[in-house]
Amino acid sequence: MENFGSWSVLTTNFLVVLYLALAGVTFASILHLTNGKWRFQVRYYAVSLAALFPLAFVLLLVLLGGGEHTFPWLAQAHDDGAHLGGWLNYPFLVVREILGFIVVAILFGLFIKYQHLTAVSDDPVVHRRFRNIALLIPFAYVLYGTMVAWDFEMTLLPGWHSASFGIYQFVSMFHGFLAFFALMLIMLKRSGKLTSEYKPFVFNYMAQLILAFTILWAYFYFTQYLIMWYGRLPEEMDRFDNMMLYGLAPIWWLFLVLKAFIPFLTFATWTPNRHNPAVIGFVAICILVGTWLERYTWISGSVSPEYYHIPMSSIFDIVVTLVIFAVGWFSVKKALNHYGLVRA
Fold first, then answer.
1. Residue 344 domain-assigned?
2. Does residue 343 belong to any structural domain of this protein?
3. Cβ-based neighbour number of residue 201 at 10 Å
4. Tell me, what's the pLDDT at 80?
5. Who's near 92: CB < 8 A, 6+ residues apart?
6. CB count, 10 Å around CB of 326?
7. Helices 53-66 and 4-33 sit at what angle, rounded to 10 degrees?
8. In 12, 63, 74, 277, which residue has its Cα 20 to 30 A from 285's Cα atom?
9. Where does the pLDDT of residue 264 fall: very low under 50, low under 70, confident under 90, or very high at 90 and above?
10. How far lies 86's CA from each of 78, 90, 95, 162, 213, in Å?
11. C-alpha gyration radius of the chain
């Protein structure tokens, strides 16, 4: 249990990598389904993040192999002989996570394949198949995202549940993706290595989406808390209270400022900010840091406050994060080169 805080850094990084891969393809599918004309400006950049799937799968296997390090309730069951519900049957958890990942990766891979085919073929069969696959992508994101949210966050504290936790988590991660993608587009444009330039209005559209998901995330954040607080449900409120008032309190309130107050006040109060790449980049960095801290707080805060751990306070935390970042950066860069989006 003493090492759970550092191991939580690995779990947090896994979720960030996984959702960047998931959300990139989901974003492209939503733009297609809504017939967004600007999708042609950004869709290949978005699906290039699917290059992170192999890294996410390796991290998933490491976490599942970690057993008690990843899932503290497993150690409790072994030590105390506690009876856990069927959902927390560990072999079942391993099987559903691996199978779920494989199914989603295959489906998202088909989307990328047919997106390319529609760009080079006028065959109506190809376009119809692409549309049908695109229709499945948001459903896969929601269903798989709910399972991931339950397994890697909500049920880390057995018996604690929230009817809205799944949507709270995957909305938060899509919010983080939008910030990452906006920052990625800004950095690519400034690098001078783009093979074709996208229009400046793309940044305004991304800022508007970020503002919309900031409001949506804040709604789910507050709704989840309000139901438990107003209903006076102490067994549910204990988890909130431990994170908000004890060792992780500075991180809890910091991610709230970074993900809600700064983006809202910046984009909602002055319209020109939504057209300024420098301002958008600053807000994106705030949201990215806030999203990482949010995930870490929910994961590491699932144990007793005496075991709380401040992230990046050990060599393990720093080295693991840097290695994952380096591998992810190399993977996405390779994908961008493969699609011919940047010059070597």
1. no
2. no
3. 11
4. 55
5. 86
6. 10
7. 150
8. 63
9. very high
10. 16, 9, 13, 17, 34
11. 20
Q: The tokens of 81 are what?
A: 């002989």
Q: How many domains does the chain contain in total?
A: 1
Q: Which of 24, 26, 32, 21 has the alpha carbon at shortest distance from 119?
A: 32
Asked if 252 and 299 touch (Cβ cutoff 8 Å), the reply is: no
The whole domain housing 68 covers: 4-338
Whether 330 is covered by a domain: the verdict is: yes
- Tokens, residue 69: 């390090």
Take residue 43 and report the two structure tokens written for it: 């869709």
Angle, helix 277-300 to helix 4-33, in steps of 10 degrees? 130
At 255, phi and psi to the nearest 5? -65, -30
* CB-CB contact of 146 with 166 (8 Å): yes
Cβ contact 58:98 at 8 Å: no
71 φ/ψ angles, rounded to the nearest 5 degrees: -120, 95
> What tokens appear for 294 in the block?
């949010």
CB 26 within 8 A of CB 141: yes
From 99-103, 169-173, 199-203, the region with the lowest mean pLDDT? 199-203
Is it the case that residue 305 has pLDDT exceeding 90? no
Which residues have CB under 8 Å from 271's CB, separation 6+?
none
Question: What is the spatial distance between Cα 118 and Cα 47, in angstroms, rounded to a whole number?
Answer: 15
pLDDT of residue 2: 54
CB of 36 closer than 8 Å to CB of 74: no
Please tell me the predicted confidence (pLDDT) of residue 205. 96
How far apart are alpha carbons 22 and 212 in whole angstroms? 20
pLDDT of residue 84: 65
CB atoms within 10 A of CB 257: 12
Q: What is the DSSP letter of 259?
A: I
